[in-house]
Design brief:
alpha/beta, six-stranded mixed beta sheet, 9 helices, about 40% helix, 2 domains, about 25% strand, four-stranded antiparallel beta sheet, 10 strands
């Protein structure tokens, strides 16, 4: 059974050379949370504090909060990249972590070869990725560039290639950190359609995004994370209203009305 359960999960990052205020501020800006001290009197950034989640198959959860609030850290906790400093995290199911679209790619090999490598990084087999090559190539619209080294690609072309791979997988648990940019609006619309299809295929979604439109399209519930702690849990429009105000929430409600409030 696909599930995510965390019990008072905390993630601390020790700062062993934190004598100056500027050093502390730099770490705080990078990791979010609050600054404290652990039992050994070492200065730590409390990136996540007392996180309690109980998610099941079919859940579509969005994460909102300012930069450095802890959204990405939470995704990394759920993926197993980070272990809880205190508390526990129990994740059951095949996890597809989609954080950095460029991770697992080699600038010196071709786009086609990178499709295989990136797919392996996401837990696919070589045969599975070879079977997907034509579909991914059609989606990216990169043509002959797929046979050229990745270092010859523009940023937008790299994003296209990475999105093609990411949206071809079959995850049980999809952990998605918004990292889509540097592509034209027409391709963005195409990418969103394909990401929506990916979400439909996944058993459980946790999605960190600054786009209320995208959250309304893909998610039914949301968590507001602030300085490493969960401030509010509820329907997407309710959480957005608490976080950003009524105008933003009304925009979310309009999008959800167009969806007919149907889960993906």
């Amino acid at each position: 059974m696909v599930s995510i359960d965390t019990y008072d999960a905390c993630v601390d990052f020790p700062i062993f050379d934190a004598k100056s205020r500027s050093m502390k501020k730099a770490f705080l800006g990078a990791a979010g949370g609050a600054i404290g001290r652990n039992d050994s009197n070492v200065v730590v950034v409390e990136a996540l504090k007392n996180i309690n989640l109980h998610l099941r198959e079919g859940d579509r959860v969005g994460l909102v909060g300012h930069n450095g609030a802890g959204k990405s850290t939470l995704l990394r906790l759920l993926s197993g990249i980070y272990e809880p400093t205190r508390g526990s995290a129990d994740v059951r199911g095949r996890v597809a972590p989609v954080f950095d679209l460029g991770v697992g790619m080699d600038p010196e090999i071709s786009g086609m070869e990178n499709i295989i490598i990136r797919g392996l990084f996401l837990g696919q087999t070589r045969k599975q990725m070879k079977d997907k090559l034509d579909d991914i190539a059609d989606f990216t619209e990169l043509g002959d560039y797929l046979h050229m080294p990745l270092r010859t690609y523009s940023t937008g072309m790299r994003v296209r290639l990475a999105l093609g791979v990411v949206t071809s997988i079959e995850p049980e648990i999809l952990l998605l950190d918004e990292g889509i940019g540097a592509v034209d609006s027409a391709f963005m619309a195409k990418a969103r359609d394909r990401l929506t299809a990916l979400v439909e295929r996944s058993g459980l979604l946790v999605f960190a995004s600054h786009s209320n439109e995208f959250l309304a399209q893909l998610c039914d519930t949301a968590l507001w994370i602030d300085h490493g702690e969960i401030r509010q849990v509820g329907l997407v429009d309710e959480v957005v209203e608490a976080y950003e105000g009524k105008e933003a929430a009304d925009a979310v409600r309009r999008i959800r009305d167009e969806r007919g409030h149907r889960p993906l």
